[in-house]
């Protein structure tokens, strides 16, 4: 998971998106929206930020520049992506995006949350490993009680 400040559509030969997607088996939660090369799959862009810097910005060259891109990423391998819990946020047009700039009173960040569900593979257990895990759990519980009792007696003194 990262705020890469780098969108998949960037023209540079090497980008965060291209490097991560080129790794063996690595996928992105944005694969529905972008190819591995970073090309948009739809004419309706998706965004994790939609902002315009104002006159108090410390980056004077970006004042008044509208930025609406995917710059927050979750890359994964070995899991099954089960969908976005929040969003993804899209706009019909630049005009619509400009009417919904963030941060705002309802979203006090300049990034939309990227919240996703993944299906985690369940481990397989043999009866022997379950017995071992049970013994470890019982030992851990006994150890926790001993530590708690020791701390309680120290606190009483």
From TrEMBL:
Coiled-coil regions listed in the entry: none
Alphabetic keyword roster: Membrane, Transmembrane, Transmembrane helix
InterPro entries documented for this protein: Endo/exonu/phosph_ase_sf
Organism in which the protein naturally occurs: Haptolina brevifila
SUPFAM superfamilies: DNase I-like (SSF56219)
Protein name per the record: Endonuclease/exonuclease/phosphatase domain-containing protein
Organism placement in taxonomy: Eukaryota, Haptista, Haptophyta, Prymnesiophyceae, Prymnesiales
Domain of life: Eukaryota
Transmembrane intervals: 132-150
